[in-house]
Amino acid sequence: MENYKDRIISFYKKHRRMPGYKEIMNLTGFKSKNAVFKLINHLVDAGIVSKDSQGKIIPSRSLDEIPMLGLVEAGFPSSVEEEMTDTISIDNYLIENKESTYMLEVKGESMIDAGIHEGDLVIVERNRNPKVGDIVIAEVDGGWTMKYFRKDGDKVYLEPANKKFKNIYPEHELNIAAVVKGVVRKY
Amino acid sequence: MENYKDRIISFYKKHRRMPGYKEIMNLTGFKSKNAVFKLINHLVDAGIVSKDSQGKIIPSRSLDEIPMLGLVEAGFPSSVEEEMTDTISIDNYLIENKESTYMLEVKGESMIDAGIHEGDLVIVERNRNPKVGDIVIAEVDGGWTMKYFRKDGDKVYLEPANKKFKNIYPEHELNIAAVVKGVVRKY
DNA sequence: GTTGCAGGTGAACCAGAGTTCACCTATACT
DNA sequence: AGTATAGGTGAACTCTGGTTCACCTGCAAC
Predict the structure, then answer these.
(1) Residues close to nucleic acid strand C (C-beta < 7 A)
(2) Tens digits of per-residue pLDDT, A87-106?
(3) Which CATH superfamily is domain A96-184 in?
């Protein structure tokens, strides 16, 4: 019954577009387009998929986005519908300029007091002038590192977020390759 | 010239499907479908979009996913092409069961030693039995909190990641609402 | 029962998707 | 000059997409 839904979603994930009527007939076993037409209308009512102004089938937001609830302290709402303030795609939340955005896996513990641990992924953006206080990916005196970007007067330096490490005052060259825009950790 | 690309990408983001030939004619100002046909083939060669087996236009992976480079310590590759090990969608990376996944904004500092700060978003999954050591969203004695899930013998308790807070030994009830699967932070 | 109705088939319809062919430029190259 | 060549128009074609209509079930409600 609602098995059809899963097959359509699978098709979307596999092919990166919604199936057409003929393809849904194959997915479901229906022999008439009208059966598909009615099925789609039910799915639209159920909020599973949507149609745009030309009637074309498009994925509903709930296929890509996940519900954003309130604060942790407020707890988990007993009825999710009640407190659902928003729905969000993590990609859209974190990424502004896809062209210049990359990810790097974190090695080492030099930023641990900033909540960036080994194994985390950082989302970085190239071609940005770093502001003081930004976390940057920098090449300094031949080595690469991730640190806070600081200024003392007009002298720039790099500060780790770990008392065991020392500030880095570049002697020869300081090449800021990218600015850290976000952090992602998976358990 | 390559302005057409951006208009097509904008259309995709706005309508959540790729435009058809007629729509691309409106986007670009072309007056013949063949001009679109040639444009699309160029974009396919350039890796901007793809066609599937039926010739239908689908977004290429690079529209949703971002390149995954190496480790931070290894630095930023001079040529991105060289070291691009993979490309990944953050949504797919973090979310396993979309049906039961939600996001919560973090308040308070009780998990700061685990690298979870106030203002971070946690990705949580409902309906999972927590394993010892998992970070959980729990209702204990009337209040909601996020803590490590621990066991001492067969007695369960909650442990914060902040020395300023004390372990919580539930007296009346301990209701695990969700297990934390990931953390996202945006700067 | 028989009445209603959700849910299926089958056929018709038009607009659009994707492709191909012939042809028409401008521009660059020797 | 002439001649490739990239990039556009215009028209033809087939197949599918989305919609609508008429009709045929089986099953539940009264």
Answers:
(1) A 29-35, 38-39, 42, 54; B 19-23, 33-34, 36-37, 40, 51, 54-57
(2) 888 988 999 888 888 888 88
(3) Umud Fragment, subunit A (2.10.109.10)
